[in-house]
Amino acid sequence: METQAYEEELQQLNTIMNEIDRQLTKLEGVPIYTGSDVTEQVLEGIRETNRRNLRIAINEPYFGRMDFQEEGKESVPLYIGKIGVSDIATEDPMVIDWRAPVASMFYSFTGGDDLAYYDSPEGIIEGLIYLKRNIVIRKKNLQRVVDTYIKGSQNESVTDDFLLYRLSENKDNRLKDIVSTIQSEQNDIIRSSKNTPLIIQGVAGSGKTTVALHRLAYLIYQYRETIRAEKMIIFAPNNMFLNYISNVLPELGVGGIQQTTFTDWALAILDYEVAAKDSSENLDKWFSTGVDRPKINENTPGKWKGSIHFKDYIDRCIERYEASAVPDRDFEPWDKIKIEKETLHQWFSYEYKHYPLAKRRERIVARIKKWIDGELKNIEETNIKKDKKKKATQYLTSYMKQWPKHTALSFYKSLFVLTDKSTLADSIPAEIMKTTAMNCKKKEVDLEDLAPLVYIHNRLYGIEAQYKYHHVIIDEAQDFSPFQIGLLKQMAQGNSFTILGDLSQAIHEYQGIKSWDEFLEIFNHDQVKYYELSRSYRSTMEIIHFANEIISKAEIPVSLANPVFRSGEKVKMIQVEDTNRINLIIKTIEQLQHNKMDTIAIIGRTEKECALLHDALTEAGMSATFIHSKQRKYEGGISVVPVYLAKGLEFDAVLLMDVDEQHYEATNQDAKLLYVGCTRALHELWVLYSGRKSPLIEDIDVQLFTSMI
Ligand SMILES: Nc1ncnc2c1ncn2[C@@H]1O[C@H](COP(=O)(O)OP(=O)(O)OP(=O)(O)O)[C@@H](O)[C@H]1O
Question: Exposure of 42 by Cβ count < 10 A (0-12 exposed, 13-18 middle, 19+ buried)?
């Protein structure tokens, strides 16, 4: 039977490949248009997209087949691929784009005799599925045919076998697409409608980043009439992470989406009026160990400035500025000739109300100048006219001095200067007042200042068209502040958001959130869709069970990860003396490489310790990449990385260093850090410590690891 299926698919592959080849050859034969005719340019754009798509399709034209019988019709085999391909002569679809409505059944159907259905533009279409088949094609060669559902057969649902086959593969240095194995709960998120903001709490390895990228590809396809790639934006925690995920969208045939960090994005909007302080200093501080650990409370700058309370405070300050902006006097450049203050107020508060504050000021200056010109026209004597003009200009300058022109920075700075007893600034903690005023003076600010600065900029100057988005994706959103979300909410049209994160990995406690309610409130609870993904696809069961024991020690209001049934090596726990550490690491890595582990991370606790470890390993002849906070590229191979920078990444094997009582104390924060470290591993996890082991791993069930000396 299997051979028969294979032969059948081989034949089909030939037919489809020939068609793709024919179309591509034809398109590649058309000379590229470089002229200035707009219609021709548009046509060239379409040809270029088609060329690009067909080049993707020619290597792996499809990955699945589903035999579907729509009610009242014949059963037809539908081939599903990354890119849709039609027979050029008959226009019949040969391969269906995975994002097409009918293809949704390939992901949502998990067996059974019930009618399957999908939501088409014409309404719900129902029918029966007879076959669901996974087909692996690599570089034009048919490699594997696995039936995951055959109607009437005993062994009805073996979907997980194929998923496991994909999960057991090793990873290189880039995140991959998952079109062939999207799971039903992921499919629901990917295909959610554009204008419902989504908040997704997903355990480590549940596919949040991957799902977010597939969702973008879906939205571009589904809303192609109204949505543009350049108007969609992804926020990720750092540039190395952006580099790590950079292959997925091109693999899905999607280009042009903005991908950035909040810092880079904010600095550009502020036109680089300020610089961002070196983040590594901050990370060193917040992730230090022992007596250096700073305490975190509501007055911690990141928390305080990231709160909606601070946003409201800024609103009040802006209102105050607005109320007192127009000088409380007539504009009277010459005796008895004047614009009355009531008129100026009328312009400001009514006629120009729809303009942002700075623009209103500009408009009024322009109107006053026009009024002066008009008045001067009535004067005939040249000398008097000249004299009056001079007087009016001087008067205007002194008048406008009473109406300060603000930039985002100057306004922000003014919030941190205590000018009089009645000032609103009374409520700002003294330490924040002092340091922020100092930073503003140096034009060098912290991450937590950027959202308020952009917010003020928007209030003063309005939001430019290029910063109004069709869709916003925020990955690792647990590290965002409510203020950042509140700000972005103003800039995303129709509240089109996908916000993803994991509270169990909320290691940036000094700025992030404790509960998703903090964001839900911003969107007015009932308008948002909240999802929880608890199935974890990355790590083996052994690793997930071990990691779950650690995170259970922290009080976090989310459910534990539930691994797919993929079994591997037990977690290894090793006590090692400092003198033997380097030796042991090198031997372990040799063993792991022998076991075909391609990407291996040695995860340390702080950046400084990792730098020292990396030096020692280099000296001992090992070649590894040291990942530090300024790293922009993830190279793969062997990496030495501080645990907080490993978040978001994954490796075939992980060596967690220094899991002792000094480095990982019995605190929520350290439990989360250790959890992040453990869940980076796909296949093997080695936990090393010297002296006393961390209390976080002290009483872990002995069945869950192997102790080695
Ligand atoms: N449906 C799936 N089929 C195959 N692989 C999947 C699937 N879903 C997720 N994966 C794989 O699981 C791994 C984790 O995915 P991803 O990094 O997107 O998860 P995450 O939730 O963002 O993780 P974390 O929060 O731990 O960084 C990746 O290797 C991804 O390819």
Answer: exposed
Was 636 annotated as part of a binding site?
Answer: no
Mean pLDDT of 207-230: 95
Rounded to whole angstroms, how far apart are CA atoms 500 and 506?
12
Is 423's pLDDT higher than 60? no
The b/e string for 392-423 (b: 16+ C-beta within 10 A; e otherwise) is beebbeebbeebeebbbbebbbbbbeeeeeee
Confidence at residue 172, expressed as pLDDT on a 0 to 100 scale: 75
Comparing 295 with 644, the larger pLDDT belongs to: 644
Amino acid making up residue 515: S
Q: For residue range 132-166, what is the model confidence (pLDDT) as tens digits?
A: 999 999 989 999 998 888 888 766 555 577 888 88
pLDDT > 70: percent of the chain: 97
Considering the entire predicted model, what is its pTM? 0.92
Residue whose pair of structure tokens reads 């995951």 in the numeric block: 148
Dihedral sign for Cα 423, 428, 431, 436, please: negative
For the chain, what is the total number of helices (H) and then of strands (E)? 26, 26
Q: Give ipTM to 2 decimals.
A: 0.99
DSSP 195: T
Does ligand 1 lie within 6 Å of residue 535's CB atom? no
Whether residue 448 has its Cβ less than 6 Å from ligand 1: no
Residues 6+ apart with CB under 8 A from 509: 296, 668, 669
Cα 560 to Cα 550: distance, rounded to the nearest angstrom: 11
Is 180 marked as binding a ligand?
no
571 is in an annotated binding site: no
Is 202 touching ligand 1 by the criterion CB < 6 Å? yes
Q: Whose C-alpha lies nearest to ligand 1, atom 18?
A: 207
Which residue from 686, 701, 634, 633 is spatially nearest to 656, judged by alpha carbons? 686
Ligand 1, atom 24: closest residue by C-alpha = 204
**E strand spans, 194-298:** 198-202, 232-235, 258-260, 275-276
How do beta strands 331-334 and 337-339 pair?
antiparallel
- Residue-wise pLDDT tens digits, 92-148: 999 999 999 999 999 998 887 788 999 988 899 999 999 999 999 998 999 999 888
User: Tell me, what amino acid is at 263?
Assistant: T
Atom 15 (ligand 1): residue with closest C-alpha?
207
Q: Confidence band (pLDDT; 50, 70, 90) for 424?
A: low
Contacts with 581 (C-beta within 8 Å, 6 or more apart), sequence order: 688, 690
What is d(CA 303, CA 306) in angstroms, rounded to the nearest whole number? 5
Provide CB contacts within 8 A for 697, sequence distance 6+.
Answer: 549, 550, 573, 659, 664, 674, 687, 689
